[in-house]
Design brief:
Chain lengths: ~350, ~350
DNA sequence: CTGAAAGCGCTTACAG
DNA sequence: CTGAAAGCGCTTACAG
């Protein structure tokens, strides 16, 4: 079955291909009568313009690329929704790829995005060293918005979260509750948000006049498994910490699992504050106190920045910082604290 | 900065565009010497072939489309991983869209996929009525594999799960534990898997010689909120059921939330068995007994079917049925039961 | 083994 | 307001 193309439509409607193209692109210089006739032909033939051809010729496209670093993390799926909704409202479609926190996979998808000639790209870097690969895309005219993470030596439009302040608040909360030995399960220092959350942790200890025990600072990889493994280590350590601050949602789940298996009670034996809320955090064996991030809004904002950039390629770069807030539930021990007070 | 194209490369390497194209496509009829020279030019210029152009001309593409119906559901994110890994191994890339359980959005994305000329498409339908829209794509040469859900009146390659049997097993488990009044929170009957799970539920009751109380069968929409709402209803009902069988993971979370808020104990006051496991199911206030689905493998299999279809367009349609298994944790009351026995 | 040329399906100045 | 024609960057018979 021969595919119907613009020529078929033109013949059917008795107009030129140029005219069909014009009505397709809502060019106002087409008479009502011709437009109607053309639209009818399009409808009747079920014509679907070939975007590959359009993109080739017009050198512009209405698809936005989005590369997240872990599609299995609810943080990103929520961001994805924000991006999709905002893009859709602006008549753009989005294609999504998953770098799996892997710089090599990221580079590969970057190539694909370039080859696909997406109009612009939102990406969560896998490392602060990703700048060069990203820069390449902007050089060929594909603007980039950085999501959630920064990059060394290069500047892009970015949307970030106040990680330092967020972590500070979470750790301070633990300290205010009386914890003096607070451990941290962090992410890889290759990630800016991991560094920032660690900095927030340090700041909170310093601000409280507490000493920093480097042995209490552990490096995970933002996956469940590492939170689990480090959680066990921490629970087994000789001079056990009173609390753990965990730098992301999945590692928090892992840590909770570890403590459950070891029958370490939360928060009585060890308190926990996590970074990033999830739909299930409140239904866990002990409802999680977390530093919550505006995930959906992160996606919205990133898309908006990209759309702005597309509209004004030469505008100065912009960084949007979104704010976190502490959600106090039970894993931090606040309830316990209240009960004690009541006694 | 003018983009480097095949012409630039050809001139730089001192060969024709045709030759560059040949080395790009690993055409064996190129001499080693010329190939090396061309590759060097490609490397030096950082040439990135324009896929839009290739697709236009070659009328073939190495990108696979994947349309899931709820990107926020861990079921689908796991499926996505399976698809991506399998596609990647076959040198294909995948672009992902989210229909949000909305037939209109699905139609829209279907158009985009067609316009993008993807090589093939894996889709989770939003309704059994989606067949016609899907058929359209196969008519223009884009093969389709149905994921997790079937469709009326049209036949496609499909990968499904043994929903009837899975639900049967879950409900039977509850009955064996002594529950005679088992409620069901199901999905919309527009979805084949929702129908099948309901059928499995009915079968289990019948097999046990129990009567079916239609008032105990509730229709949700596979989102948290509906599980929550119906969970409350059920908890408040006058002749309260002893157990609930919930047809998907997100609704199960909602139901757990509802019961917690109402201080209905699980499983003492009401037992729960859910359909589909999640990473957090075991860490919930009461670890969830679930009918687990092979999610990752579902993605793998769907991709394999699509790849097969691409290789052999005229082969007969195939349906792969993957199997579920029951994971017994605590929400069903099995532990309780054991304790009783021990007394 | 390699090149010249046609053509994929669009869009966009350029005329009129 | 509309059409004829060129061209986007590739691939692929067709020659040689």
């Amino acid at each position: 079955m021969p595919r119907v193309n613009i020529k078929t439509v033109a013949q059917y409607a008795g107009v030129s291909e140029a005219t069909v193209s014009r009505v397709l692109n809502s060019n106002p210089t087409v008479s009502e009568e011709v437009r109607a006739r053309t639209l009818e032909a399009i409808e009747k033939l079920g014509y679907q313009p070939n975007r590959a051809a359009r993109r080739l010729r017009a050198n512009s496209s209405d698809v936005l690329g989005l590369i997240v670093s872990d599609i299995e993390n609810p943080f990103f799926t929520s961001v994805v929704r924000g991006v999709e909704d905002t893009a859709q409202a602006a008549q753009k479609s989005v294609i999504l790829c998953n770098s799996d926190e892997n710089p090599t996979k990221l580079k590969n998808y970057l190539k694909i995005m370039e080859a696909e000639r997406v109009a612009g790209l939102i990406v969560a870097p896998t490392s602060m060293k990703d700048g060069e690969s990203l820069q390449r895309l902007t050089q060929v005219g594909i603007p980039i918005v950085l999501l959630d993470r920064q990059v060394d030596n290069y500047v892009f439009d970015s949307v970030l979260v106040d990680n330092i302040r967020g972590a500070f608040t979470g750790v301070k909360h633990l300290i205010d509750l009386g914890c003096e030995r607070v451990a941290m399960i962090g992410g890889t220092p290759a990630l800016s948000n991991a560094r920032d959350r660690l900095e927030g942790y340090r700041n909170a200890l310093k601000a409280a006049g507490l000493s920093i025990d480097e042995k209490l600072i552990k490096e995970g990889n933002y996956k469940i498994e590492s939170g689990y493994r480090i959680g066990k280590e921490l629970a087994h350590s000789t001079h056990r910490p009173q609390a753990i601050f965990v730098a992301n949602n999945l590692m928090t789940l892992g840590a909770v699992r570890a403590l459950r298996e070891l029958k370490v009670r939360i928060p009585e034996d060890m308190a926990i504050v996590g970074f990033d809320d999830t739909p299930w955090a409140n239904e866990l064996m002990v409802p999680l106190t977390v530093v919550s991030q505006p995930t959906y809004q992160l996606g919205q904002t990133a898309t908006q920045l990209l759309l702005n950039r597309l509209a004004r390629p030469d505008a100065p770069f912009q960084t949007a910082i979104l704010h976190t807030h502490l959600i106090i539930r039970e894993s931090c021990g606040a309830q316990l604290h209240n009960q004690e007070k009541m006694l």
